[in-house]
């Protein structure tokens, strides 16, 4: 969706148009969700039609536009846009796949392996004891930890609930019972060294990681080559996170963990609608 940036005089100042790098399919999908939701709750009217509401919300998510700026340019109040945003995020996040269903879907398509990794989504730093758990010593920043699974080509298939930034990836994976879900689906997973020791059955592992050197026991040439092979196969996972973080609202999240989980899952749905490898 693109528009020419010709400024026009509005009632409260200049109004300009800018390009939104999303397909019309995504816009129609979000507008359809809004339209169905309004019918379900028997809402008689909205200030703007569903397609315009969808466009405003997508602009906020993609470009992290200020709500008051979007409101002023579309003739509505900032509080109205503020109500639309979580409403649409909730509708999108409800379409995000559950872990067991996502894995079974990959297995039905003939897939044999998924890629597992974690990422820190930075949050605004707040004062007080409540924000201390969000500090990640690994990244030296405040944020929320998310785990994600992608297929072999780097397409996102599942994202976990948010955990405080100080949480470890392996503990979060155990909390989500990823190992047992992989066994039930008959799939394996490739992961980095942060997940060493996650698999509880070393004789029949479903999670393959590299080898870690210890004091007095350096890696052999064969083990180093094995690490390189695992890293090479895992590279596609980074494409999935890059696609997700193209949504600039994730630059610094201003939500708590529960709402941030809904946001990430909503963006997962939107990303899968835009990116197909």
Helical residue percent band: 40-55%
N-to-C SSE series? EEHHHHHEEEEEHHEEHH
Compute the number of helices: 9
**End-to-end CA span:** 21 Å
Sketch the major β-sheet: 7 strands, mixed
Can you tell me the residue ranges where pLDDT is under 50 for at least 5 consecutive residues?
A: none
Taken as a percent bin, the fraction of beta residues is 5-15%
Helix/strand/pairing category:
alpha+beta
Rounded mean pLDDT is: 88
Keywords:
277 residues; alpha+beta; seven-stranded mixed β-sheet; two-stranded antiparallel sheet; 9 strands; 14% strand
In short:
With 277 residues, the protein is α+β, with helices and mostly antiparallel strands. The chain contains nine helices and nine strands.
Write the layout of secondary structure elements.
Blueprint: E1 8-10, E2 13-15, H1 24-40, H2 50-63, H3 67-74, H4 78-93, H5 99-108, E3 113-122, E4 135-136, E5 141-150, E6 156-159, E7 163-164, H6 169-175, H7 178-185, E8 188-190, E9 207-208, H8 221-244, H9 257-274
Parallel strand pairs: 3-8, 8-9
Antiparallel strand pairs: 1-2, 3-5, 4-5, 5-6, 5-7
Notes on the protein architecture:
The protein has 277 residues and is α+β, with helices and mostly antiparallel strands. The chain contains nine helices and nine strands. Strands 3, 4, 5, 6, 7, 8 and 9 form a seven-stranded mixed β-sheet that branches. A two-stranded antiparallel sheet has the order 1-2. Strand 5 and strand 6 (156-159) form a beta hairpin. Helix 1 packs across helix 2, helix 4 (78-93) crosses helix 9 (257-274) and helix 5 (99-108) packs parallel to helix 7. It is elongated and about 70 Å long.
